[in-house]
Description:
Layout: H1 2-11, E1 14-24, E2 28-32, E3 38-44, E4 50-56, E5 62-67, E6 77-78, E7 93-97, E8 100-107, E9 114-120, E10 131-132, E11 141-149, E12 155-162, E13 170-175, E14 187-188, E15 204-208, E16 211-217, E17 226-231, E18 240-243, E19 260-264, E20 267-274, E21 281-288, E22 294-299, E23 308-316, E24 319-326, E25 333-339, E26 350-351, E27 361-369, E28 372-379, E29 384-401, H2 422-427
Antiparallel strand pairs: 1-29, 2-29, 3-4, 4-5, 5-6, 7-8, 8-9, 9-10, 11-12, 12-13, 13-14, 15-16, 16-17, 17-18, 19-20, 20-21, 21-22, 23-24, 24-25, 25-26, 27-28, 28-29
Amino acid sequence: xxxxxxxxxxxxxxxxxxxxxxxxxxxxxxxxxxxxxxxxxxxxxxxxxxxxxxxxxxxxxxxxxxxxxxxxxxxxxxxxxxxxxxxxxxxxxxxxxxxxxxxxxxxxxxxxxxxxxxxxxxxxxxxxxxxxxxxxxxxxxxxxxxxxxxxxxxxxxxxxxxxxxxxxxxxxxxxxxxxxxxxxxxxxxxxxxxxxxxxxxxxxxxxxxxxxxxxxxxxxxxxxxxxxxxxxxxxxxxxxxxxxxxxxxxxxxxxxxxxxxxxxxxxxxxxxxxxxxxxxxxxxxxxxxxxxxxxxxxxxxxxxxxxxxxxxxxxxxxxxxxxxxxxxxxxxxxxxxxxxxxxxxxxxxxxxxxxxxxxxxxxxxxxxxxxxxxxxxxxxxxxxxxxxxxxxxxxxxxxxxxxxxxxxxxxxxxxxxxxxxxxxxxxxxx
Length: 430
């Protein structure tokens, strides 16, 4: 009898949401061909002007930036010097506060791969010389850097460190108190995890007040669950760590996709990829900032036999925007899911890329502020980076009956452990 009541309850779930017409500007080409079109990232400087950074993977390898001038994007230009040799495999990553810009990347300019940083205090008009952000000694390999900015405008960086034969992987965090001129002692943020970090998985950072959260994967006999570590003392130590997966994904390979997250009230919203069911899926997770306990794992747009990867997330309060790649139409494309009223009202994913261009699209990124969604991606056939801005018009309140978010919440039906019941999920939104 209880099972029957549960089914009826789920079937009759009703959400109130605001539906708005989402419109897009024309797609702008940021860079193409020999000028480079490697893995773009988008961020907003003062006046909410977008800047786009990307790699030029041809020789000589460089990192470039394109700046919005109020009407259009200026031509992209190099912001690293010849010989710095940014990696073609990961990065670069960008963090912005006002007109302060920090960019980190892996570099082969040193004897062994290291993490480098450049910075700008004028919105990207000029950049500093290259600053080595990872430790110089002892000799080690450092790769897969990421960056965030604390409330004072100082950079916080993370990266993977190995011994010289690529063993003993460790997820490291370094902070700065002088806007990146120097860095404090590197701290092993993954130290208190139950096993060593995934050796080929990039970490990411969330900084909120004096708290630093490191998102990373572990590797416990090829079980690659997403974890979170917390520092409440500005990166001096990471004493609290937690496994935030139901999935127990067994994979004798590299998951590739980075786990990313944003601050969401007293919690964190985290997006990640899992292939535990044999289906590569994008999942959103809610994690308590205080305890690091998670309250749910929910598929963003579950589609059987589709490969989803490379999720990114941006938000402003309960307006949430998630992008990723998948191949639902037979070729790789970039998709957007959004809600203006929290996770229960996330839309189905739909393509935001240029419909006039055929062929695969890769590496989406998103940032949202003041009602505008800024999106970038790589158009492979046209060998270029494209930018498009989305905005909302004509909001009307409607009642929507939809149980799409609940059919995959009880993960036992997909063979996963059900640590968090459907009732716990529903209680979060009452």
